[in-house]
Amino acid sequence: QVQVVESGGGLVQPGGSLRLSCVVSGSIFSRYTMAWYRQAPGKQREFVARITSAESTNYATSVKGRFTISRDNAKNTVYLQMNSLKPEDTAVYYCSAHYFQDYWGKGTLVTVSS
């Protein structure tokens, strides 16, 4: 069974930075397309960023230029570097791994507040 575990969430002031990490179990991490999604209170889950096995990336318009997704295949880990955080970035952030099927983590809470 593939396990997806996020970490790195927390409370940060507006304008601050956080780095989220997501570790995936198993031996085929390099084949996964990895993505981050988020769900704010009372809203639907939305796409944030994606990185393919070839390390092609794409981002939601709302985070482009502020967030960076990257991966370390040797560590089975994908990262989301979040800079210039805004209160509207407050959400539970979920990591997903896709290779013929989707695997999801349980999420990590990011709160942006002064």
Quick structural summary:
The protein has 114 residues and is mainly β. It contains no helices and 11 strands. Strands 2, 4, 5, 6, 9, 10 and 11 form a 7-stranded mixed beta sheet that branches.
Features:
single chain; mainly beta; globular
Would you mind describing this structure in some detail?
This protein is mostly beta strands and 114 residues long. Helices cover 0% and strands 51% of the residues. Strands 2, 4, 5, 6, 9, 10 and 11 form a 7-stranded mixed β-sheet that branches. A 4-stranded antiparallel β-sheet has the order 1-3-8-7, with no helix packed on it. Strand 7 and strand 8 form a beta hairpin. The mean pLDDT is 97.
Q: Please estimate the helix content.
A: under 10%
Which geometry do the CA atoms define? Answer: globular
- DSSP helical segment count: 0
According to DSSP, the number of beta strands is: 11
Order of helices and strands: EEEEEEEEEEE
Q: How widely separated are the two ends?
A: 40 Å
Poorly predicted regions are none
| Rg calculated over all Cα atoms | 13 Å
**Structural class based on helices, strands and sheet pairing:** mainly beta
Main sheet properties: 7 strands, mixed
